[in-house]
Known about the structure:
Layout: H1 2-7, H2 10-37, H3 44-75, H4 83-110, H5 113-125
Helix pairs in contact: 2-3, 2-5, 4-5
Amino acid sequence: MSAGVAAGLVSLIGFGVDSGIEVAAAGVVLHRLTADVRGGDADEAKERRALRFIGLTFFALAAYVVFEVVSNLIAAETPDTSLVGVVLTGLSVLIMPTLARLKRQAGEAMGSRLVVADAAETKLCA
């Protein structure tokens, strides 16, 4: 995210925020899977609230990106280029769709709707 701020690139800032959201979602999935492995029950209400919060953060991120893009268009600002941005984009294009597919396959094999939903989120992030 700091590379995005330094270069004035909304896309890199959004990527950084999106990565934080993805980590939070993975934490919810990990908590749930850990509870399943231990034979206990995860708190469904807390899980739903956490997932709802994660979903809302995506809407907030989208609103931020739209606001920044419109502001930059109105002000006719042009962003700097960023080697970090080019490398991250290239790696993401290669890795994220594969990760999403593997998560979906694992979720389907486990019969876990939560893991399948997390796979859909990863695909969206790609």
